[in-house]
Amino acid sequence: QVQLVESGGGSVQAGGSLRLSCVASGYIGDSLCIGWIRRAPGKERDRVAAIYQWDGRTYYADSVTGRFTISQDNAKSTVYLQMNNLTPEDTAMYYCAAGYSPRPDCGNTPFTAWGQGTQVTVSS
Q: Using CA atoms, how far apart are residues 29 and 92, in angstroms rounded to an integer?
């Protein structure tokens, strides 16, 4: 079971940027999807972005496409989420999550491992 620790959240004004980091440890196979899920009070769970560790294929939710970029540094076992042009609607607790799939279908692969979460707050 992979273990995940995320960091990088904080409070910014609308239009600002944040970069989240997720460090993975434990067993990391060649079919692992690592992504970001956000949860906010009164809103449904939102899969923001994900990446396939083996070949770097990515998934983005429509709401963040063009603003957020997910990337990985395999040497450091770290996944990053660069968030630009943030809006108050992006305010949420952001969780790094992971799951295994035989295919690079990281938009649909169930996540079974979760980090502790990092809070992102965007003010107007």
A: 29
Phi/psi region, residue 48 (left: phi>0; alpha: psi -120 to 50; beta: rest), is alpha
What's the mean pLDDT when you consider all of the chain? Answer: 94
- Cross-strand partners of 19: 82
In b/e form, how buried is each residue of 23-43, taking b as 16+ CB within 10 angstroms? bbeeeeeeebbbbbbbeeeee
Alpha carbons within 13 angstroms on the beta-carbon side of residue 14 total 5
Taking residues 53-71, report their average pLDDT. 95
Q: What is the mean pLDDT of residues 99-104?
A: 87
- DSSP state letter for 26: S
**Considering only CA atoms, which of 43, 33, 48, 36 is closest in space to residue 6?**
36
| Phi, then psi, of 75 in degrees rounded to 5 | -65, -30
Q: Which residue has the higher pLDDT, 30 or 95?
A: 95
Q: Nearest Cα to 57, choosing from 98, 107, 19, 14?
A: 107
